[in-house]
């Protein structure tokens, strides 16, 4: 075999099988498994976050102890501050029942939802492009994005990762449904079920990607498609019935819930600023193209892929993804309250659109320069290697810097472990908590979560005091604090016992 024969084999046969469905399934499975292992391995290596994971954590561990309910609680009273529907809280409580109460079990539903989102993104990209490099690149771009896999997202027990899974799933499914004049009813019903699940995760936020879908239907003159099948109406009615049933039953279970939802989630956050979370009209544009997305400003090159794309499913898929991103950007930018994690549902479609555009640019250059398929594959592999190292570097940076390990309340887990090792089973905590502009005073959700967590390990937190005006009425009681405002005062109350850095624990001596 001479050089020319070998070259023909490389160009014509060897690479052809690498884009087959079996190879795609194998590669996708390996990539998803690697991402899942990386994420799950670190779920318990950082403390519960103060904002807003700790609030959900208390909701979940109280439901774990008291049983599944429509009513989420804080301090075992109906929670009218965190008014999100309880789907995530149910999953977190069930996870703790299955694996035992822990930070790891608490965060598992969000991590699993993030991994499932990667799978949906890869499946959607593969169906559009039939290209393994493009499919893997979309996954890597999403996995490397701090806004998707970092704080308040996949790595913590917050609502946004689960919301992102449901929105990504129904948006991707609807793309293929809307391009059929007579779609199968069961597919439409599944899309409706995913929409309902998104609503039960984070209320009206689950419907926001619908703006981009509407824009796409108008732009492609397919606006009449939802009216061609009665199953769209049936599915829509089912979503409304699920939402109305939940909110109605929740109001019956505890009066005042609907008023709190209207004030907080429906009208309050969108039309007025919550706390100090304001921003300019272009706030999310910088979030979309800044450090929260892995490829940074390169994402703004994705629309140029429409210029080189042929009239095919790939072009329509790219336009669809861009419409979702633009629809979310516009809708969120018009809101008064601006928080970076509101944009999380857009990241999958930023990754998809940039991956598709990159592939289109490479193919366009290859066609004009008449590159061999070997050179094209080499470039594709180079892009994937670059994306892999980008993902790895971002993950290291996030893991080292994105979590608030030094917050005073975050140290109570280590303090309770230290006391438990000494055989102490009852402790009184002095902690003034935190305050904010929303009227919260002496707020200590991290402390309350760890107190409930350690109660299952036979260490009872007898009381949590905001100050020292009320002390135990007997000598020998253990008093402890991780609040730096009370550390010196508590240390003078009695004989100090071993504790963790930044915390003080003493045997109380009456005077």
In short:
The protein has 21 helices and 7 strands. By secondary structure, the protein is mostly helical. Helix 5 packs parallel to helix 17.
- The proportion of strand residues reads 5-15%
Strand order of the largest sheet: 4-3-5-7-6
Question: Which stretches of 5+ consecutive residues score pLDDT under 50?
Answer: 9-17
Number of domains as seen in the coordinates: 2
Mean pLDDT: 85
Overall helicity: 55-70%
Summing up helix and strand content along with how strands pair, one would put the structural category as mainly alpha
What is the 3D shape?
Answer: globular
User: What pattern of helices and strands is seen along the backbone?
Assistant: HHHEEHHHHHHHHHHHHHHHHEHEEHEE
Number of strands: 7
Helices, by number, come to 21
Q: Which value, in Å, is the CA radius of gyration?
A: 26 Å
- Tell me the distance between the termini: 97 Å
Main β-sheet: number of strands, strand sense, barrel status? Answer: 5 strands, mixed
Q: Topology of this protein?
A:
Layout: H1 3-14, H2 21-40, H3 53-66, E1 73-74, E2 77-78, H4 87-99, H5 103-129, H6 132-143, H7 146-149, H8 159-178, H9 185-202, H10 210-219, H11 230-253, H12 257-266, H13 268-271, H14 283-289, H15 305-308, H16 313-333, H17 347-369, H18 373-401, H19 412-421, E3 426-430, H20 445-455, E4 460-465, E5 478-481, H21 487-491, E6 494-497, E7 504-508
Parallel strand pairs: 3-4, 3-5
Antiparallel strand pairs: 1-2, 5-7, 6-7
């Amino acid at each position: 075999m001479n050089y020319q024969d070998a070259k023909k084999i490389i160009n014509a046969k060897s690479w052809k099988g690498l884009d087959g469905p079996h190879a795609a399934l194998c590669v996708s499975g390996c990539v998803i498994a690697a991402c899942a292992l990386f994420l799950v391995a670190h779920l318990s290596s950082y403390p519960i976050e103060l904002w807003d994971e700790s609030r959900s954590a208390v909701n979940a561990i109280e439901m774990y102890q008291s049983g599944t309910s429509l009513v989420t609680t804080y301090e075992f009273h109906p929670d009218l501050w965190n008014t999100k529907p309880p789907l995530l809280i149910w999953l977190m409580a069930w996870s703790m029942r299955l694996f035992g109460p822990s930070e790891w079990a608490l965060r598992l539903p969000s991590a699993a939802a993030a991994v499932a989102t990667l799978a949906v993104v890869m499946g959607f990209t593969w169906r559009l492009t039939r290209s393994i490099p493009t499919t893997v690149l979309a996954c890597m771009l999403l996995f490397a994005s701090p806004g998707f896999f970092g704080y308040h997202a996949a790595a913590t027990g917050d609502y946004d990762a689960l919301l992102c899974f449901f929105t990504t799933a129904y948006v991707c499914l609807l793309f293929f449904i809307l391009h059929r004049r007579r779609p199968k009813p069961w597919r439409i019903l599944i899309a409706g079920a995913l929409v309902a699940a998104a609503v039960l995760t984070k209320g009206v936020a689950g419907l926001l990607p619908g703006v981009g879908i509407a824009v796409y239907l108008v732009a492609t003159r397919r606006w009449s498609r939802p009216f061609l099948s009665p199953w769209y109406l049936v599915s829509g009615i089912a979503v409304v019935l699920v939402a109305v049933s939940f909110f109605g039953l929740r109001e019956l279970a505890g009066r005042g819930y609907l008023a709190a939802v209207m004030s907080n989630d429906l009208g309050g956050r969108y039309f007025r600023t919550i706390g100090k979370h304001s921003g300019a009209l272009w706030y999310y544009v910088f979030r979309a193209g800044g450090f929260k997305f892995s490829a940074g400003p390169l994402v703004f090159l994705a629309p140029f892929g429409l210029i080189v794309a042929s009239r095919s499913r790939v072009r329509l898929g790219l336009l669809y993804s861009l419409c979702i991103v633009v629809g979310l950007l516009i809708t969120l930018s018009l809101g008064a309250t601006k928080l970076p994690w509101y944009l999380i549902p857009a990241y999958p479609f930023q990754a998809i659109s940039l991956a598709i555009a990159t592939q289109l640019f490479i193919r366009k250059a290859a066609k004009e320069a008449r590159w061999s398929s070997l050179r094209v594959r080499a470039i594709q592999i180079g892009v994937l290697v670059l994306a892999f190292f980008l993902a790895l570097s971002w993950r290291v940076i996030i893991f080292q810097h994105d979590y608030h390990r030094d917050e005073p309340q975050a140290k109570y887990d280590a303090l309770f472990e230290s006391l438990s090792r000494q055989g102490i089973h009852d402790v009184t905590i002095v902690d003034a908590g935190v305050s904010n502009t929303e009227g919260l005073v002496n707020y200590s959700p991290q402390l309350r979560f760890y107190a409930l967590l350690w109660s299952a390990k036979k260490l009872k937190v007898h009381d949590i005091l905001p100050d020292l005006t009320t002390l135990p009425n007997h000598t020998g009681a253990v008093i402890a604090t991780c609040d730096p405002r009370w550390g010196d005062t508590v240390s003078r109350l009695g004989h100090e016992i071993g504790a963790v850095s930044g915390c003080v624990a003493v045997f109380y001596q009456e005077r």
